[in-house]
Amino acid sequence: MSKQDYTNTSVQEPPLDYSFRSIHVIQDLISEKPRTGLRPLRHSKSGKSLTQSLWLKNNVLNDLKDFKHVVSQLLEHPENLAWIDLSFNDLTSIDPVLTTFFNLSILYLHGNSIQRLGEVNKLAVLPRLRSLTLHGNPIEEEKGYSPSLLHRQYVLCTLPRVTTFDFSEVTKADRTTAEVWKRMNIKPKKVRIKQNTL
């Protein structure tokens, strides 16, 4: 199967689903059996999954140590990973390893322990990210936080390609409000010009 054929068919493949498995560390995925769905998972000749979706929701993960290494052992084409569900775990930050999956378009991080809204900045390098969830994190306890204002505006300014945030479609009005919020709250970086001294 060519890489192009793989990309076209794997979008419709069921996820590799390790939800509700009480997984504490990523390395446990190697020995753990994924959940079975209505449709069976397809595998390559080497035994790796042909999916582009990895679901790890409702576990007890507090970090993603060795994530890339383990994913490469589970998926035939880890570089094509498009959907990662890490919701309802104990993650305290957005691990930079997630930014190495450039085809990532859906990332669920709701119901974790992420405390700093600035963690979102790391995701700006993902060119295909379209859907993100963050609700149910301690970010909501930040002074002045309002899910409909600060949080949403900051995310939309930082990640302008996102079309769905916290399961809510991003509208033209959201974009306009985010742009106004950005002008009022985010100071532009000063550009320093080196002067030639003769």
Order of helices and strands: HEEHEEEHEEH
Low-confidence stretches: 1-10
Binned strand content = 5-15%
CA-based shape: elongated
Helix content: 10-25%
Sheet with most strands: strand arrangement: 1-2-3-4-5-6-7
Structural class: alpha/beta
Distinct helical segment count: 4
Subcellular location: Cytoplasm
Keywords: Cytoplasm, Leucine-rich repeat, Repeat
Protein name: Leucine-rich repeat-containing protein 51
Pfam family, one: LRR_9
Structure description:
With 198 residues, the protein is α/β, with parallel strands linked by helices. It has four helices and seven strands, in the order αββαβββαββα. It has a seven-stranded mixed sheet, covered by helices on one side. α3 (147-158) packs across α4 (172-185). The chain starts with a helix and ends in a 13-residue tail after the last helix. The model is unreliable at 1-10 (pLDDT under 50). Pfam families: LRR_9. It comes from Ceratotherium simum simum (Southern white rhinoceros). It is found in: Cytoplasm. This is Leucine-rich repeat-containing protein 51. InterPro entries: Leu-rich_rpt, LRR_dom_sf.
What's the short version?
The protein is α/β, with parallel strands linked by helices and 198 residues long.
Topology, please?
Layout: H1 3-10, E1 16-17, E2 53-55, H2 67-74, E3 83-85, E4 106-108, E5 131-133, H3 147-158, E6 164-165, E7 168-169, H4 172-185
Parallel strand pairs: 1-2, 2-3, 3-4, 4-5, 5-6
Antiparallel strand pairs: 6-7
Helix pairs in contact: 3-4
Structure characteristics:
leucine-rich repeat, Leucine-rich repeat-containing protein 51, alpha/beta, single chain, 198 residues, cytoplasm
